[in-house]
Amino acid sequence: MNYETILHEIYQESKTLPIIGNVSISIPELTKVDPDKFGIHLISIEGEDFGIGDSNEKFSIQSVSKVLTVALAFSFLDERIWERVGVEPSGSAFNSLVQLEYEKGIPRNPFINAGAIVIADMLVTHLENPKQDFLDFIRMISGSPTIDFNLKVAQSEKDTRFRNAALANFLKSFGNITNDVEMVLDFYFHQCSIEMTCKELAHSFFFLANEGKTISGIQVLTKSQVKRLNALMQTCGFYDESGEYTYKVGLPGKSGIGGGIAALYPKNFVVSTWSPRLNEKGNSDLGMNALELLTTKTGMSIF
Ligand code: GLN
Question: Could you say which protein family the record assigns here (predicted)?
Fold first, then answer.
């Protein structure tokens, strides 16, 4: 497969598509990002890198980080994490509160904010230095020791945390947060503020395409855990647009309101896109279109 030519074609064709959406306004610091940034990076399972556009510029990975916190929690708690969070698509917005009430504080899945906050609570309990240990995990799986939090973004999210604080307090009232709410939120805002380039993001997700092994050969999860995490991404990775995303793209993937997407074809490649303009569901419009072009042109999708 000539990925270089294909990425070039996708990049050119994407530029002719109608411009849809705008940068996220929910975190003030993210409104400063140039909406017209656009990058794609693909790493093949053989470890060959292909990048185009702004693929070497850092951006806020936001909810894409939720896959990596679940991976870390999964690695030491295994199936026990599902006692506190479900594996069903929510059909609601990523920051919705409604389901929590009638489902008694058990979030539908770990990719909506409520679920990710429960996973953050697990990590706060299990890690000695939660924020630093999580960062070290990311640096290890990506092979990139310079990956870091953006403290301004974390602070900006903290300053406007009303909805996430409501979710966390609501979860606490059901006994599904065991640590101090502010401590858990602080961890969650930092995980979301992590910045990566498209290349670093694709490298971080490599183990999910490689039966649990990172590029450097470290076994992070078992084959079976990887199957489960990829299945969750497929069914829940784009919130209430997961069906539409699956229909168009046909690869497990995860989006974030920083405009990033990471997606993968097991045993073949990992691809990441970055375009900060979001549609009304909070997913990157151009990123989804670029991935649709990729699976259409290559015929490489899990379906
Ligand atoms: N940090 C964001 C929030 O909690 C993440 C949401 C997202 O990327 N969809 O609202």
Answer: Belongs to the glutaminase family.
Q: Is 66 exposed, middle or buried (0-12, 13-18, 19+ CB in 10 A)?
A: buried
| Whole-number pLDDT of residue 15 | 85
Q: Ligand 1: which residue has its CA nearest to atom 3? A: 113
| Backbone dihedral angles phi then psi of residue 300, each to the nearest 5 degrees | -105, 100
Nearest C-alpha to atom 4 of ligand 1 is from which residue? 113
Q: Which of 74, 80, 220, 83 is nearest to 142 (CA)?
A: 220
The Cα–Cα gap between 159 and 153 comes to 10
Cα distances (angstroms) measured from residue 246 to each of 134, 195, 239, 295: 29, 26, 11, 11
Where in the chain are the domains? Answer: 3-298
Per-residue model confidence as pLDDT tens digits over 168-207 = 999 999 999 999 999 999 999 999 999 999 999 999 999 9
Percent of the chain with pLDDT over 70: 100
Q: What is the pTM of this model?
A: 0.98
Answer yes or no: is 188 a known binding residue: yes
How many whole angstroms from 178 Cα to the centroid of ligand 1?
Answer: 22
Q: Could you tell me if the CB of 64 is within 6 A of ligand 1?
A: no
CATH of 3-298, one of 3.40.50.2300, 3.40.710.10, 3.40.50.1000, 2.60.40.1220: 3.40.710.10
Give, in degrees to the nearest 5, the angle at Cα 228 between 222 and 232.
Answer: 145
Distance CA 227, CA 239 (A): 19
Sort residue 175 into left (φ over 0), alpha (ψ -120 to 50) or beta.
left
pLDDT at 1 over 90: no
